[in-house]
Amino acid sequence: MPDTQTPRTLWQRLLHEPTVHFFLLALLIFVAYGLSSVNQENVLELDQREIDARVFMQEMATGEELTQEQRDFVAARYVEEQILVREALALGLDNDARIHDMLAQKMLHVLSGEIIQPSDEELQTFYEANIDRYRIPSSRDVIELVFDSRETLPDGTLSLLEAGGSAEALLESNPGSSGPLPNINHLDVSNIFSEEFANQVFASAAGEWAGPFVSNRGQHWLQTTTVYPERLPELSEIRDRVRLEWINSEEEARLQVEISRLFDKYSIVITEAADSEH
After folding, report:
1. 227 or 43: whose pLDDT is higher?
2. What sections of 48-140 are H helices per DSSP?
3. What is the pLDDT of residues 107-144, one digit of tens each?
4. Where do you find CATH 3.10.50 in the chain?
5. Distance between CA 201 and CA 223 in Å, rounded?
């Protein structure tokens, strides 16, 4: 069948072209800006280099050269941005806690400067000065045995616990459950149960049962199977961790120096609000 649709006019086709949209928007903004420039108080001087830089960044992002219409659009967006900034300043919109926070954070990034790396000597000195933070505390592999009942256990069960019997044997005549708790330290046990129970567990020898700790689940007993003593890893084992912590510490120290330098540029005067009259 022949096409019965009315062919689109040149104007209709142009309205659907994105580059035409860019050009029209740019034209409107430039016209508006030109009209406002009649008032000399609203003269806005712009640097062509800033516009060129934005065009260049856009071309880098897209990987291809912009058309003239697209360049005009980038320029128009820059003009629009500068006008909006000026109007915002005129309205006092910069006097906003959120804006101040964003500016302060950006300034901190500026002041922090380049990424720094420690020498071997600096890394060793930092490691030795902070040696306690790198100590790995004593830990244990334990078996947790939970009896469903919170009542006093039968004498036979208590005797088997005292003898260091296996969880399987203890559960044969006492309903409950068991499971491993690998490589837990004193703080872990304190957080899961209580500090008093952690003291009891870490005072026990391998093979001994420590307990009971009574909860809404029943009564808990822990049997140590393996003891791992406290140790201090060599710098070579944790070099990456120490390096990152050195960088954070050094950047913070340098940042504070820069902030102090900025403070010295200003005379700080803090005024108190006048008492309101009632």
Report:
1. 227
2. 48-62, 68-90, 97-112, 120-129
3. 666 666 666 789 999 999 999 999 999 999 999 999 99
4. 136-228
5. 8
Listing DSSP states for 228-278 in one string gives E--B---TTTSHHHHHHHHHHHHHHHHHHHHHHHHHHT-----PPPPPPP-
And the tokens for 170? 């203890």
Cα dist. 144→52, 184, 200, 201, 221 in Å? 69, 12, 14, 11, 6
Give this prediction's pTM: 0.53
CA atoms of 126 and 50, how far apart (whole Å): 44
Rounded to the nearest angstrom, the gap between the alpha carbon of residue 203 and the centroid of all alpha carbons in its chain is 39
For domain 136-228, the question of CATH label 3.10.50 is answered with: yes
- pLDDT of amino acid 6: 44
Label the pairing between strands 209-215 and 176-185.
unpaired
What tokens were used for 277?
Answer: 């009259």
Q: For the chain, what is the mean pLDDT?
A: 81
Q: What percent of the chain has pLDDT over 70?
A: 73
- Spatial neighbors of 139 by CB under 8 A, at least 6 apart, are 183, 184, 185, 188, 228
